[in-house]
Amino acid sequence: MGFFDGYNISTSGMSAQRARINVVSANLANAQTTNTVGGGPYQKQNVVFQEMLVKEQERSGSTNNKFNNEELTLRGVGVKTVIESKGNPVMRYEPHHPEANEKGYVAYPDINPVVEMTDLIEAMRSYEANIAAFQTHKTMDNKTIEILKP
């Protein structure tokens, strides 16, 4: 493990959780959106994470691979994609709503604010855990430097 690997892993985690917070916030903000540019109600979005691996040989800049086995090391986490939910809209009877169909029903996004708030809290806690890991790594590095001082 390199000197900066701990920092890189923590910052990649913070970046991924920030993206998740943004998506969950958009879901909450659009929980009542019945008409979008594409037509129909807003579709809930979810973030898909992926691990970011790097070949040890590439990380060290070495091209001398005696046994031709390439070790993969963790570099962090990243956002693979943001996907739209395939859930059906929730139909509510509101005959006086401007978006009501001929039967008086309005299509609302299938977004549960309680679930979204729980996801938001979880993402915030994960972000905070990455900050704590970053600060712990920094403290360890500072103590190491203090020990190595003449």
As a whole number of angstroms, the C-alpha radius of gyration is: 23 Å
Q: How do the helices and strands follow one another from N- to C-terminus?
A: HEHEEEH
Total helices: the number is 3
Query: In which order are the strands of the major sheet placed?
Result: 1-2
Q: What is the structural class?
A: alpha+beta
Number of strands: 4
**Helix residue percentage:** 40-55%
Mean pLDDT: 88
Strand content: 15-25%
* Head-to-tail CA distance between termini: 25 Å
Low-confidence stretches: none
Could you give a short account of the major beta sheet?
Answer: 2 strands, antiparallel
Describe the structure in your own words:
There is one protein chain. The chain has helices spanning 5-29, 56-60, 113-148, and strands at 45-55, 72-84, 90-93, 105-108. By secondary structure, the chain is α+β, with helices and mostly antiparallel strands. The chain has a domain at 5-31 and 45-84 and 123-148. The longest helix is centred in the last third of the chain and has 36 residues, at 113-148. The protein is elongated. The mean pLDDT is 88.
